[in-house]
Amino acid sequence: KQHPEHVVRGYQADIADNKFLGILYEEGGRGILQNVNGEEVAKHLKPDDWNEYVITADGPHITQALNGFTTVDYTEQDAAKGAKEGIIALQIHVGPKMEIRFKDIELKELK
């Protein structure tokens, strides 16, 4: 299915300074797939420094770790709904003026 320009759908690893910090979300689909304890995750966030976010998608199994702390360990149970392929996008949400920076991005194919 073709989406409007600049619109992505599918699994989304969130990093934000609000209730979405560290969650797994399905953009354009089911919404929050795995929620987290925001207070616990916030303990591992470096608000004024670089953060390392490691996202691993191994078939239906997705993990997310923020600065070494695992926020999500999710296995897709609905094979008909879970994305099997797609693009990787770095996005910023609409809203007030903001700045976000990315560096040292690495992609590794699992074997």
Commentary on this structure:
The chain is mainly β. The protein has 1 helix and 6 strands. The protein has one helix at residues 38-42, and strands at 10-13, 24-27, 31-34, 53-58, 61-66, 69-75. The strands form 2 sheets. Strands 1-2-3 form a 3-stranded antiparallel beta sheet, with no helix packed on it. The chain has a 3-stranded antiparallel beta sheet with strand order 4-5-6, with no helix packed on it. Strand 2 and strand 3 form a beta hairpin. The radius of gyration is 14 Å and the shape is globular.
CA radius of gyration is 14 Å
Category by helix and strand content:
mainly beta
Helical proportion, percent range: under 10%
Q: Summarize model confidence as the mean pLDDT.
A: 89
The number of distinct helices, counting runs of at least 4 residues, comes to 1
Provide tags for this entry.
111 residues, mainly beta, three-stranded antiparallel beta sheet, 1 helix, 6 strands, 28% strand
Short description:
The protein has one helix spanning 38-42, and strands at residues 10-13, 24-27, 31-34, 53-58, 61-66, 69-75. It is mainly beta and 111 residues long.
Any chance you could write out the topology, listing elements then pairs?
Blueprint: E1 10-13, E2 24-27, E3 31-34, H1 38-42, E4 53-58, E5 61-66, E6 69-75
Antiparallel strand pairs: 1-2, 2-3, 4-5, 5-6
